[in-house]
Amino acid sequence: MPFVIYIFSLCAFALGLTEFLVIGLVSAISKDLNSSIEAVGMTVTAYAVGATIGAPFLTAITSNWQRKTVMITTMSVFSLGSLAATLSSSVTMMLVSRFIAGLAHGLFLAVAATAATQMVIPEKRGSAVAYVFAGLTLALAFGVPIGTYLGSIISWQLSFMSVTVCGLIGLVGLIFFMPKSAEHSGEAPTAPFKALMHIFNPILLLGALITVLGYTGAFTLYTYIAPLLFDITKVSIQTASYMMLIYGVCAAIGNILGGKLSDTLGVDKAVILIMLLLTIALVCINFYGVSMIVMCVLIGAMGAISYAAVPAMQSRIISIAHTYVPSAVPVASGLNIAGFNSGIALGSLLGGVIISTLGIQYLAIGGAIISFIGLAIIFLLSFSKKYRSHA
Predict the structure, then answer these.
(1) 3-state DSSP: the chain helix, strand, coil percent, rounded to 5?
(2) Which residues are CB-contacts of 59 (< 8 A; sequence separation ≥ 6)?
(3) Is pTM beyond 0.85 here?
């Protein structure tokens, strides 16, 4: 892989750390800021909403910028937003700062994923995307569990400050190692207005819908995994940290497997398999959530499945764009990043509603219903002659 792809992965590590660190510290932050768990959970939503807006719309608006300029700008904004979140004295301040950081998150990953696929041969696009997103899964595997543990025994602000440091390191790496010559990889820049119109292309929207449903299902549960482990599985915060470490390690493995699956099976079959496994895992968590041993296995499975979905789903929509809307590849990438983060936002909202109305024990089955809907849709799309002829 080109060396700059590893720099993208380093930046993605910082992005993943700030997006998911709050999940493991929901209880600690809510106590420190005198807020409810649901209110702190909304900071996950705020970040995801920022990424949802930033990915397609800012990607379109900056479509004729140099990619190096876009990446340096986004990492600068991200680092400032992360610092503001660290210094937050209220949930409101954290909501605003995380929304700003989320805007940068969506734009950066959309551009990085597109650039990575254009630096390798078509047969390696799935693996290239997996390398970019490996930073997110490494953040889950090591950053989030360590940050959760340190945040629980020392201070959640200390954990958040580590995000800012990682962001600045990634920024320096981009300044020195991102080549200007890679800005468009031979593609002519698209005018911003024309690029904005691609956001509403029904083919690309259908592709992103699968991502939205898959991640809504997964994050209906995962946003509130810490309180679920405390209330249902009855584990300590230290044990919960170890279980999240299992999730993260398996996510890192799943990320690589997702890229291999896409290259081997094809993107449609890979995504169908992943959505099926996600639905099964959520149903099993609903029935076996009281067992710590079984939950260790199922949480590991959730991590592997959820992050095998990232390169598979990202490669799928980029492949669709390359085939049917070649001028919209960067916007397609942005739409799918928006799809991931829309799913995270909707999942955290749905999870909060389920907790407040039905109870935390219904999170998994609620997520399973959403992921099954996504599975049904992609199955129909993949085997519909109409879809194949007009997609």
Answers:
(1) 85, 0, 15
(2) 106, 107, 110, 111, 195, 330, 331, 333, 334
(3) no
